[in-house]
Amino acid sequence: MLGFGKTRLKIHEFRNWFLAEFGGIPSCVGVQGRLLGRVYNLMDPQELQEFATTPGIREKCSEVQVKAALKVAEMLSRGDIP
Length: 82
Description:
Shape: elongated
Number of domains: 1
Strand content: under 5%
Structural class: mainly alpha
Number of helices: 4
């Protein structure tokens, strides 16, 4: 049970970092609204096409993914995650 509590603290640390870094919930919808100014319904073929052709979309989404991965790597490298 001790490891579970410590892990939960790390999850909260990451969540709080994500909220501060990106100003929204850690989800595609939250990031879309913040970075793109609107949310696309990716289940709708027309909106998916609009999303896919939005200028800079690959860079913006990649930036979120890279920053999140680097944060997790930083947290893991500290060696305090069970």
